[in-house]
Amino acid sequence: MAPTLYMMPSSPPVRAVLMTAKSIGLDLELKQLNLRRGDHKTAEYLKLNPQHTVPTLVDDDGFVLWDSHAIIVYLLSKYAKNDSLYPKDLKKRAVIDQRMHFDSGVAFSVFLTILYPLIYREKKTITQEDKNAAEEVYSFLEAFLEGKQWMTGDSVTVADYSLIATISSLNVLVKIDPVKYSKLNTWVKNVEKLPAYEANKSGLEQFVGYVNSISGSIMSLKLYHTSLSPACRASLLTINALGIEVELVPINLNAQEHLTTEFLQLNPFHTVPTLQDGSFSLCDSHAINAYLVENYGTDDSLYPKDLQQKAIVNQRLHFDSNVLSARLSAITSSILRGGAKTVAKDKADALLQGLTLLETILETNKFVCGDKLSIADFSLVTTVSSANAVLPLASNRFPKIFEWWNRLEALPYYKEANQEGLNAFTKLIKSKNIMRQNSTR
Q1: Is residue 211 within 8 Å of residue 173, measured between CB atoms?
Q2: Cα 371 to the center of its chain, rounded Å
Q3: Distance of CA 413 to the CA centre of its chain
Q4: Which of 48, 56, 222, 430 has its Cα between 20 and 30 A from that of 104?
């Protein structure tokens, strides 16, 4: 049984462990955590690692260990076929330990000091102070490499894997001057040629994408919305699930703010939600949510890259737009704009027929596309919860829908993103004093 590694690919310490494991041919069972969602703060994870950090290792005998440097040494000591990456010679090992402590205590610390204020919006740019701190790290490493090809001598060690994971990430924030730090620049290129470096690439690419999002265009993301709209609430669920910062611009449809010249330039269809990303604008919640995941998600779990999995998500999204959402809209439009005091039987039956199809989909699925949450769940749950406000649904008729709905309600961001707007929508519908029909239950 392979050791289990709880991880997030964009994390430098995680990538250091992955490179080490790859270098000794050790297969790890990877369990990916979404830190923005708070996976690292669940009761289950805190029992493993009260420090709630990644990576965390659980060996096949149940032994638990965190901190990448400690994990690396443990894995090499137990699973490596020789001691080349972490020699038994005490003096060589001491130098490797020193370099790894430099990584954790200096290099990685500087990296976090620069990154965290960007993540938490305490600053929007890399300051000169940040650059100075990074360059001090580079100058130390340049000195370490004097007369050496690798960080501790003439052969690769785990010090190289630990430091390249951090330095390749720090380089995203503050570029290494190849002239000023020529030895360091050469070392980076040499490490990149190692077979084990392959384990650093994917996570580093994710980190680059994340940094681009928080330091650039994400600052200009705006969502024009009204919380009364199920479609808008689906986008709010997506935004919260991704943990990205978006400026929310309320639109008062009664005041016809969606018909202003300024808004029509963004969206000639004058609908909400409308997303503005710099000079780019996009309408329709389904398209918006897919765009947000693909451009700003740290992974593709909500909208998979796998073509077959993505096709299923797309099918469910079209089921929402073409069936459930369209049929709900036919009812709400007649009430809110047409002044209807009853729900027409044919419209009610059409909506209930669509919900019956959803019940069938959920017969064997935890979520609407299988066992994993996706943006299709966000679109459908806002529609279903709004439909319930118009035509109160019986749990014994749609038991699977209610079980699924309960799973969505348990999400930490559900209340803020959907429930508050749903409450306002329900209050509005109730104020219209709609006559209920037996066929709707």
Answers
A1: yes
A2: 17
A3: 13
A4: 48
End-to-end CA distance of the chain: 51
pLDDT at 362: 97
Give me the half-sphere count of Cα atoms (radius 13 Å) on the Cβ side of residue 122: 8
Over the stretch 163-221, which tens digit does the pLDDT of each residue have?
999 999 999 999 999 999 999 999 999 999 999 999 999 999 999 888 877 765 444 68
Q: Residues 6 or more apart from 358 whose CB is under 8 A from it?
A: 319, 324, 368, 380, 384, 398, 401
Structure tokens at 290: 């897919």
At position 249, the amino acid (one-letter code) is V
- Report how far residue 268's alpha carbon sits from residue 258's, in angstroms, rounded to the nearest whole number: 9
CB 173 within 8 A of CB 111: yes
pLDDT at 437: 53
In the block, residue with structure tokens 């803020």: 416
**What letter represents residue 380's amino acid?**
L
- Report the SS3 class of residue 233: helix
Instruction: Decide if 11 is catalytic.
Output: yes
CA gap 116, 114 in Å, rounded: 6
Residues in the chain where the model's pLDDT stays below 70: 124-125, 215-220, 435-441
- What dihedral angle (degrees, nearest 10) is formed by the CA atoms of 395, 401, 406, 409? -120
C-alpha span between 184 and 149 (Å, rounded) = 10
What's phi and psi for 281, nearest 5 deg? -130, 150
Marked catalytic residue, from 11, 23, 321, 325: 11
Q: For residue 62, what pLDDT is reported?
A: 95
How many alpha carbons lie under 13 Å from residue 103 in its C-beta half-sphere? 26
* Per-residue pLDDT at 438: 45
Q: Which letter does DSSP use for residue 108 in this model?
A: H
Residues contacting residue 429 through CB under 8 Å, at least 6 positions apart: 332, 335, 389, 390
DSSP labels, 294-349: HHH-SSSTTS-SSHHHHHHHHHHHHHIIIIIHHHHHHHHHHHHTT--SB--HHHHH
Q: What domains does the chain contain, in order, with CATH numbers? A: 4-211 (1.20.1050.10), 219-440 (1.20.1050.10)
* Number of residues that make up the chain: 441
